[in-house]
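Sample 1 of the test manifest.
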Amino acid sequence: MSQTANTPGKKVTTKQPVSIKDVARLAEVSIATVSRCVNDPDRVRASTRNRVEAAILQTGYSPNPLAQSFRRGKTKVIMVVLPSVGDPFFTEVMKGLREVANASGYSLLINETQFNTMTADEIGAMVVSRQADGIVLLASVSPFGTAVLSSDNNRRLPVVVGCEIVSLQAAGYPSVHIDNQAAAIEVTDYLLELGHRRIAFIHGQESSLLTKDREDGYRLSMLAAGLSIEDGWVVGGNLTITGAIQATQKLLRHRHRPTAIFCANDEMAMGCMHAIKSAGLKIPQDVSVIGFDDVRYAAIMDPPLSSVRQPAKDIGEQVMLRLLGEIETGRSTDAEPVIVPHELVLRRSVAPPVD
Amino acid sequence: MSQTANTPGKKVTTKQPVSIKDVARLAEVSIATVSRCVNDPDRVRASTRNRVEAAILQTGYSPNPLAQSFRRGKTKVIMVVLPSVGDPFFTEVMKGLREVANASGYSLLINETQFNTMTADEIGAMVVSRQADGIVLLASVSPFGTAVLSSDNNRRLPVVVGCEIVSLQAAGYPSVHIDNQAAAIEVTDYLLELGHRRIAFIHGQESSLLTKDREDGYRLSMLAAGLSIEDGWVVGGNLTITGAIQATQKLLRHRHRPTAIFCANDEMAMGCMHAIKSAGLKIPQDVSVIGFDDVRYAAIMDPPLSSVRQPAKDIGEQVMLRLLGEIETGRSTDAEPVIVPHELVLRRSVAPPVD
DNA sequence: GTGTATAATGTAAACGTTTACAGTCATACC
DNA sequence: GGTATGACTGTAAACGTTTACATTATACAC
C-alpha cells in the first residue's frame, strides 16, 4: 500500500505526527486533561476519560518521547560501556542488564571501548551531557574519564560498576563482581595440587585493569607455594583469540615450557588450545589449559575447557537493579561492593603433568 | 573529592547544569548569538565569538542534547533490531554498523528480539514514536510489526534491512546481504561432488525467516541432483548450541544416518560437531560438517570448520551508509537489494564419505 | 555626509510535554 | 438557599534549544 511512497528518490512521506493538541481538540478538553489521562488516569472523571481515550484511539496519538524526555529531564536510557560486545561473557552480562532495564522501561545504549582509551574520553563527554539517566561500566576508562565521572561539575550521574575495576571502586562507585583474585588463587592452587610447577599465565592487556586481579591471584598462589615465575611465563593475549595464539606460541617455545596455562578469559583459552594442538601437542597430556568466565563455548571445546564460572546474568541483573534503584530514588546506594559467588568448573582440559 | 557526595543514602548533588542563558548573560550577548557560536561560528563576528567562547569555557557549558533532540526532532540514535547480540556473526555486523554510525555522530540503540515475536511488536511501537532517526533490521519482525513499519500513519522512518529477510524486502525496504540461496547451493553441490548422498540440514527456527533461503538452496541442490530428502534429515536447531546438539543426536539416530550435516549457521555447527564427537564418531571420517557465517571460532574448531564467509563488517557498514544517506537526504534510497559476495571457506571438517 | 548593501545581533516564537495554580462545578451539609 | 468541601478541569508557564524575522551596526561607494 505504501509502495508508492517508497519509490526510489521520492520524498519520504512526512505527515505531521499527531500531538496532544490534536487529541485535546477532538475530545474538546484542554491539553492538560489529555496529559492527565495518559499519566494519571484516576485524576480525571470517567466520562471525560472515555472521550479522551476515544480521541487518542481515533488519532493514533502517542506521546512524543523526545518532548517527554526534554520536559522530564529523563531519557529512560542507560548507557553501557564495555570493551567488546563480541565477548560471550559480556553478552551474558548484558542479557541480565537488558532484562531488568526493559522491565522498567529503560533502553540500553551500548558503547564499546574496543580496548581504545580514546573512546573512553568520549564517554566522559557523554556523561557530562544528559544522554543517559545512568551508566553501567564494564570496562576501565581512562583517567580523564574517571575524573569527569567523579567531578561535581555537573549533575552527578548514577554509575554502577560491573565486574571488577579497582580504580573505579576506589572512586567510590558501587560494584557487583566475583572475587577475581580468590578465584585465580583457587585455579592456581588446583593446578599446583595436581603437581604442576611450571604454570604460565596469559593476561589481557597491559593497559586494561580488567584481568589485573586474576593475575595477582596467580602470582600470590605461586608465591605462597614457594615457586618463582620465570621470565616469559606471563604474557599478554590482548583478550583475543589471535592474541592468545601468539602468546601461546611464545610460551611453547620457552626453554622451560609450562605444563599448564592459565588464561585470564575463555576467549583466550580457546585460542590457546588451538595453538597447542596446532603445535602437535596434546591437551591435557602435554599441556593443561584453564580459562575464566565459563562462556557457553567452554563446554563444547575439544577437550572441554575447565574454567571459572561467573554468574554473568546475575551480575548484570544486580548491577541494573542497583543502578535503577539509585536513579529512581535519587540517592546513591551503598558503595560497598557486592561479591557474587564463582565456581571452579573442572573439565577434561586439565590433568596432572606427565614428566 | 566527591566522596562526601557519595555517602550511602545521601542526596546526590544536583547542581543545576549551565544553560545557554548563563553563557549569554556572562558574555553579554543574546542566547541566539550563543547558539550561532556553537552551531555556525562563521556567522558571528570574531570579537564576540571570542567573548562567547570564553564564557562557554568558564561556565563549562555544553548544549543539552535532550533539548536539541526535542527542538530539532532528531535523536542521533539508530535502532538496531537483531535476534541476539550474542551471535559472533551479528557482533561483526554491528562492528561495521557502529563504526559508520559513530563517524557521523550517531549512537546505536540495540534491541534483541531473542527469537521472541512479542518484542517485535514493541519494535513497531518504538517505530511509531520518534525514539530513533532510523532502524536497522537484522531480524524478522512479526506481521504486526511489519504492518506498523510500512503504515503511513505517521512519519515513515528510514529502515534498512541487513542480511536477508524476504518478507521485509517484499515490503520494499532496501537491504544488503549475500545471496544466501546461491551460497547454500554451492555448499550442497560441493558435498555432492565429494560423493555425499545422505546430506542433512539443520535450520534455525520454524518461525524465523533468517535461514529460510539457505534451506531452500539446500533443497534445490538436492532436487537438482535427483536426490530425495528423507524424513528427519531436516531438523531445527533453534540457532543455539544446545538446540543443535539435540538436533544432531536425532540425526545420528536416523536409520539412514547422514554422512554430511549442513548447519544454517556456525553456532549450530559448533554444537553439531560436539554432539558428533561425543557420540564417539570422527569428523570428517564418519560425518562431515559445514557451517555458515565463518565466525571467528570456525577456524579454531577441532577440526577447523568449513563455512561460508559473509563479509559481515562490510554488510554492517553498507547498511549504515544507506540508512544514514536516507536520513540525511530525507529521501528513500533505491530499494534494489545490494548483494555482497560470499566465499566458501574449506577446512578440514569436510571429506568424502567413506562407505 | 548621505545612501545603500551587507554583516551582526537581538527578539520572540516555536517545538510537545508536564504541572503549579486558579477556576468551575457539583455535592453535602447546615 | 447559602456555604464549605472536594473533585474535576482549564490556564499558562516552564523546560533549553533553534531560527525566522526585525533591528541595528558596519563598510563602502559616491
